[in-house]
Design brief:
Radius of gyration: 20 Å
Order of helices and strands: HHHEEHHHHEEHEEEHE
Shape: elongated
CATH superfamily of the largest domain: Ferrous iron transport protein A (FeoA)
CATH architecture of the largest domain: Roll
Strand content: 15-25%
Largest sheet: 6 strands, antiparallel
CATH class of the largest domain: Mainly Beta
Number of domains: 3
Helix content: 40-55%
Oligomer: single chain
Distance between the termini: 46 Å
């Protein structure tokens, strides 16, 4: 059984499930490898998945492995895109290569270094690891919440994570103010309210919003 193809199938199953699909047909459609049906049969025998008609579901062993693979991939995307400032396309491609080689310890270190990000650059949720629940002080996060930034400091907005309620409208409102990933801000005052300076504009935002904005000091 091909380990690489097995991992690709597990990661794809996780991604498809996020979109509301557990379809065998969707798996075959998304993977061009002719060995996919054979590997799926072997995965079922290995107790990783359960296949019933056109339905594929992750079993406990497969769920754990798929979660780990997805976490490593999406953290790698954050590392390449946010820290090394690699393009989205190149970050995605490189993450596909390195995700198979990151050890659990290295993965946790990357996660802590980035400040335990909740989403990848594409906005997809990153499965949490143990380090996310017990913050390690051994590695100083590179990406922090805006509320943790020191007054007078300058930083680049890395990502914004808002609650699902009215998310699109709130993102549009923030974007109209210039609060978007990539913008350079200077914190003038800590809340309430938080006062920011973006280029020549000074604006105030509520504390709940400041908690959902993650920045990297410049």
């Amino acid at each position: 059984m091909s380990k690489k193809l097995t991992d690709e199938i597990l990661e794809l199953l996780w991604s498809l499930r996020e979109k509301g699909s557990k379809s065998y047909s969707d798996v075959i459609k998304n993977l061009e490898d002719k060995k996919t049906p054979e590997v799926i049969r072997k995965m079922e025998k290995a107790d990783l998945i359960n296949v019933s008609g056109d339905m594929i579901e992750l079993k406990e062993k497969g769920e754990s492995r798929a979660s780990d693979l997805t976490r490593r991939h999406r953290l790698a995307e954050r590392l390449f895109h946010d820290v090394l400032e690699v393009s989205m396309e190149e970050s995605e491609h490189t993450a596909c290569e390195v995700e198979h080689f990151l050890s659990p310890a290295v993965t946790d270190s990357v996660c802590a270094f980035l400040g335990h990000p909740p989403t990848c650059p594409h906005g997809k949720p990153i499965p949490k690891g143990e380090c996310c629940f017990k913050y390690s002080r051994e590695v100083k996060p590179l990406v922090i919440q805006l509320k943790e930034l020191e007054v007078g400091s300058e930083a680049r907005i890395v990502y914004i994570t808002l609650s699902k309620k009215d998310k699109s409208l709130r993102l549009e409102r923030l974007a109209s103010l210039g609060i978007v990933p990539g913008s350079i801000i200077r914190l003038k005052q800590k809340g309430p309210p938080f006062v920011l300076e973006i280029e020549e504009t000074t604006l105030a935002i509520d504390s709940p919003i400041a908690e959902e904005i993650y920045v990297r000091k410049t």
